[in-house]
UniProtKB/TrEMBL annotation:
Membrane spanning residue stretches: none
Domain Methyltransferase: residue ranges: 1-72
Entry protein name: Methyltransferase domain-containing protein
InterPro entries: Methyltransf_25, SAM-dependent_MTases_sf
Any matching Pfam family: Methyltransf_25
Species for this entry: Fimbriiglobus ruber
Amino acid sequence: MDVSPGMIALARRRIAALPDADSRVRFTIADVRSDPLPGTGYDLLVTNFVLDCFTPAELAGVIDRLTAVATPSARWVVGDFGVPAGRWRPAGLITLAGMYAFFRIVTGISASSLVNPSPLLTARGWVATGEATWLAGFLCSRLWIAAPESGRAPST
């Protein structure tokens, strides 16, 4: 799901050669904040460079909406920007500020700064189980699964 028809077209081209891609992948042009989500029962959510586009209030709503359509055993891959560590922190902060200014003008995103989704995911019963970072933490990918005590975990 993406709000951009161009991004959907690009994704369709990229998976075209995969066996049964047409029957296994569903594309929807929609705004995750407000449009009806296409069904329920998702066992994998992937939000690469999505969650960083929202204000804190919008992000909480997006995470609630996506959590509601996920299965109890779903996995969620979150790939986004982060604030670099150590000596790269100042350069990272300047780069992020420039990126947010650019994307607010060009695409109209509502966010004006990076919001860490981790506390919101944790509060909704997700647990980070893996992480990979690049460029001193400027790029980060995390795998989230349901916490057993959250009631989201599958029964055994």
